[in-house]
Design a protein that fits this description.
- There is one protein chain.
- With 114 residues, the chain is α+β, with helices and mostly antiparallel strands.
- The protein has a domain of 63 residues.
- Strands 1-2-3 form a three-stranded antiparallel sheet, with no helix packed on it.
- The N and C termini lie far apart (103 Å).
């Protein structure tokens, strides 16, 4: 009987295997070193992108302090909806009216349809 030799050929690991190995090594490194994750300003809170918010963080406490200058009070970190929210780059209606350019300024344009 001619049996083929069973040889295990070494194949390079796939990209998915390398990614999972890297994730496991990073998780083990964090577990062993005990490094605390810092909470950076992110999109979890609506205040993170509001122009009324003043956000402060301390190294010692690793927590955010959010002060709303519209409501003049400290706010919790998990705000989801707010009536006074204004994005950093947004303009108010008055500001938009100030920069608007009139296209047709003829007096007879608003007289109705003929």
């Amino acid at each position: 009987m001619d049996e083929k030799p069973t040889s295990v050929e070494s194949q390079p690991p796939s990209a998915d295997d390398r990614y999972r190995l890297g994730e496991r090594l990073e998780a083990e490194n964090k577990r062993l070193t005990g490094v605390a994750r810092e909470h950076f300003v992110d999109q979890k809170s609506l205040c993170s992108s509001c122009k009324w918010a003043s956000i402060r963080r301390q190294y010692s406490r690793n927590a955010r302090i959010i002060f709303c200058s519209n409501f003049t009070q400290l706010m919790p970190e998990d705000i989801k909806e707010c009536t006074a929210y204004q994005a950093f780059g947004s303009l108010s209606l008055g500001q938009m009216a100030d920069i608007a350019t009139l296209i047709d300024d003829r007096k007879d344009r608003n007289q109705g349809y003929l």
